[in-house]
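INFO  loader      accepted 1 record
INFO  loader      residues=228
INFO  predictor   begin
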Amino acid sequence: MKINVLDRGYVRLVDHMGGDLAVVNSARVSYAKESKQLTDKDVKLIKFLAREGHMSPFRHATVQLEFYAPLMVARQHWKYVVGSDHTMDAWNEASRRYITIDVENYIPQPLEWRSKPEHSKQGSGEPVDESIGREATERLLRQIEQGIKDYEWALESGIAAEQARLLIPSAYGMYTAYYWTASLQSVSHFLNQRLAHDSQYEIQEYAKAVYELVKPLFPVSLEELLKS
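INFO  predictor   done
INFO  writer      dumping C-alpha cells
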C-alpha cells in the first residue's frame, strides 16, 4: 500500500509485525497469560499502558515503511532515529556512492512558496505574492538544470560517482529513498511531533501518510498513544 506525497514523493507500507494483540500479550506475559483475540479488557489494558507511560509493550509491534522524500524532510525525520530513547529503529538509505540514480527534486509551484513568519525565527507564514513565487520556481529550475548537466558531465568524464554527486543541485530539495523500520512507540512519537499544526508543511504531509498507513494495523494502540 502506497500513499503519494508532495509532487513526486510517497510513503509505502513494506511490512509490519504484530498488532494491538501483540501489545496486550507482551504486557500480559509478566503474569504468564495470553489473549487469543482482543477483548474489552484488553482495550482497557492498552489505554492504561499508554496513559501511564508504560512503553515497552508498544515496542513489540513494528512497521517497515519506504519513503521517497526531499532531503530536507529525510534529515528532519532522521533525528527521530538518532534521538530515540530506545533502540527499536533501523534506517537504510539509497547511496549515490554506489549507484547513479535519476536526479529528482521537490519543486514548489508559484503559489506554494511561503513567507517567513512575522513573530518567529522558524516555520513559515502565508503564501508569497504569485509573482515572487513564479520567480522562485524559475530560479530553482535553472539551478537544477545546470546542476544536472554538470553532474552528467562529471560521470561522462570518468569522475567517480561518489565525487560526481557533489555537483548534484538543490541538496535540500533532492529526493532520496529510504527504509524506516520502527516500533509503534517510535512511530507514535514521530506522529505526535509532526502532525502538529506548527510543524513544517512538507513533513506534516509525510506524517499524515504514515498515520493513514499505520492506523489500520494498530487502531486501538495508536489512538491511545496519540493522546499521550
